[in-house]
Amino acid sequence: MKQFIQAENLSKRWGDLMLFESISFTVVEGQKVALIARNGTGKSSLLDILAGKESQDEGTVTVSNDIRMGYFEQIPRLNPEYTVIEEIFETDSEKLKTVKEFELAMAHNDQQKITEISAKMDELGAWDAEVEIKQVLSQLKIVDLEQQVKHLSGGQQKRLALAKVLVQNPDFLILDEPTNHLDMEMIEWLENYLGKTRSTLLMVTHDRYFLDRVCNEIIEMEDNQLYRYQGNYSYFLQKRAERIEMQQASVDKAKNLLRKELDWMRRMPKARSHKAKYRVDSFYETEEKAKQKIGQESVELSVKSARLGKKIVELESVSKSYPGIKLVENFSYKFSRFEKAGIIGKNGTGKTTFLKLLTGNLEPDNGNIEIGQTIKFGFYRQDGINFDPRERVIDAVNKIAEFIIFEDGSRMTSTQLLTRFLFPPETQYNFIEKLSGGEQRRLYLCTVLMQNPNFLILDEPTNDLDILTLNVLEDYLRAFEGCVLVVSHDRFFMDKIVDHMLVFEGDGVITDFPGNYSIYRQQMDNQVEQVAPLAARREKEPRPDKPVPEARKKLTFKEKKEMEILEKELERMGQQIDQLENELNSGVLDHEQLHQKSEELMLVREKIDEKEMRWLELSEMS
Prior knowledge:
Mean pLDDT: 81
CATH topology of the largest domain: Rossmann fold
Distance between the termini: 60 Å
Largest sheet: 6 strands, mixed
Structural class: alpha/beta
Low-confidence stretches: 532-552
Radius of gyration: 29 Å
Strand content: 15-25%
Number of helices: 21
Strand order of the largest sheet: 5-6-7-3-8-9
């Protein structure tokens, strides 16, 4: 197989901190590889080096000359003065430049320009590329192509940067946390897209479902060593556990041997000027092996939570909207003791606004929010990291408390707590600006939990945290003796933590779903499957002579959801018909395109007839 990239004996230092040393690996054509490591071990720096954005201290990187590389960085480097379409199509490809001209002509409804560029699109065979680009932009919710980059939010800029990489259709994709700032619908689309693409892939991600379904190999970087696993995340967990068990057995064996060797070293007569050299060498090798620490360090979280009273948080007919958009509409809910709820919904449906309403950072337009007297919120916010970069790690924690009380009544100093959070003593006196993004988030999480909350609100807590830290955070939350409310696009995290979910459906509608995300997703898929062509499989039955009973059948929860989905699909398909009819009447389509659009219009109308029949059937039961 063709080697796309080869790294040999790479080393990188950040100031006094050694990120990685003398690591080597190869990525060959067709592989889809995930890189897993703790925060602060240099994952992003390694990707920067491979992509040529940063230089290594030692070692070499060899990239095949004839491959096209695309790199999605964790912090996008975009031109703020460009428009969205200028940024996306910043390329040397003539085909993509032609697609850009076509999209601009369509946006301005310039019929003459459309006709001219259509001929060039035919010549370059660019229509397939145009369709794929539209699909990428549509799925990532990039609509206004003439908006300037500097006016986009941080999340919109990340989606734009991701779209820019994907539309280039590179041979080799390097992705650094691609699922951050995507909603679940976008993540599932990207998961499917990367699973089907022919591009070779190297990525860093904390999303374990995403990793499990996309990647076929995992590289784990630990203690300056690389371990390769030929399989997905499930296989990695199994083999990693086996590796650690074998290493531990090896260390235990070395310790037993060390005791014997130590006894031999002590018993040798002092008068002898030298001992057998091979035994001395063996002693020091055994001693070094016996002192090894197996990579099982983990964050232990057991901070005591304040006592919960009977009243938690009660919302009554709460509404909140902004001009032109409803975020919460007439919503009532009572939180229960020890409740663990998740919040899901598309970006912009009001999830973060809801959290601000709960915590009193925002006032509702209508309705009341009553908070129990014993409630003490711990609010982990997406934008909550506001440390002074010139402050030392230990000082940031000491501002909150110099001693922390744990559930068993024991006390711990801030230095001991930081050590437990994987900040060793030598790191605690570093300036915060030297920490990686994930390490800063871990420090922020530490400062939230140590304030003794009994109602934890976590807004996207998984962004930038490594998988090993996430595992321990999940264990802590499941054992937490208080309420937990989580907003997250990490499906694996949600499945492990929540008992039920508040689904933000848009236009102010919030639905309480009794189950985790996988159960919810399965139910939604089942409903879509049920909306099949009923006319083809429905048998005509004679109408009964008996009168219909007065007690009519009520819609089940699943049928109500199905009806809502049908209404949205019918609206979308109506818009699709309008668009197809406009294209057919534009006068710019050739014979083949006219035939294709006519067939497409006929198929859409047939689907509308089927869905309307099912909607009428359900409406008669409601």
